[in-house]
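Tutorial, part two.
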Amino acid sequence: MRLTFTLFSLLTILGIYLPQKLEAQDPRFSQFYASPIELNPAMIGVYEGQWRFIANYRDAYSSILQDNAFRTLAVSFDMRQKVQKKGDYFGFGFSALRDEAGEGDFTRTKANAGLSFLKKLGGSGYTPYDQYLIAGAQLGFGQHNLNWQKLWFSNQFNAEDGVVDFGSSTGESFDKQSTDLYLDFNAGILWYILFDDNLSIYAGGAFHHLNAPSISFLENGDDVLHRRWVANAGGEIPLSREISILPAVAVMGQNTHLSIAAGGNLRYSNRDWREVAIRAGAWAHLTNQLEEGIGMDAVVFTTFLEMERWNIGLSYDVTTSVLNTANNSRGAFELSFIYIHPSKSRYTVDCPNF
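Running the prediction step on this input gives:
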């Protein structure tokens, strides 16, 4: 049982994180709309309030990997400052992420500082609809870690007895358990137009790891963190005074990996001055699956509670790929928390609901 579990953990890490060479695929959140700064640096400062704090937690495949599940924690803080010209703003933000995966204690840690500029394009008498174009960038540091001692390799497998000799040589030359601290640079743009408080459209795109930093565990290694591109779009469509639908799509590509999330949430609001709203929805997650092309990986069910300052989201990924035979369709659990401090200024930025 120990051998089977260890082998599965190793194959999982090799299959997802170490294809051909040591190549890392960025973690993602199913509630991408609730982790905006991780999605696109241009979303720094895009909210209605004085400042914002966000925390996201994801736990994936614990039904198989138990205590060695894939766990991701991200936090961010951003605020906005008005510039001299009416309607334009600078946004400032900080974010950090830690990702853990598998029995080998593979971890990724990063921290970024970001800046955005919100340029108002409309909202006057000539163009009555609030419209903004935002550009944002992040600069930060990251590091990857892997505990080689918790993994075994083919040289350590005794075929006659069917056991692993952890005391024998691995036959591999590993120099270190941590990569060098690397510099990371991300940039993105976002456009949105707000026709009414529950009617809006937005679209954006971003590039992450523009400098393609080295993440090799070997001295003088040539493994790099591949650039990741993101395209996202969505909006809000009213169905009645209290009910609206929020469709959205996020497409991400990194090296040979492709991820597509599309769906929507149905939103009900009491339309009071102390607004309380609830959301519920379903999302499809598709990925490229080796030679089989793009296929359905999971269906994500979400629920969201919006209060005056607090937003709390829950989601669950139901696995639909071939992995469902191993995990009985029990994929990932995700929790998001957003706090937005209300603005004290009479100058506000009207933003869409994401």
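The chain is about 10% helix and 50% strand. In part three we will examine how such features are distributed along the chain.
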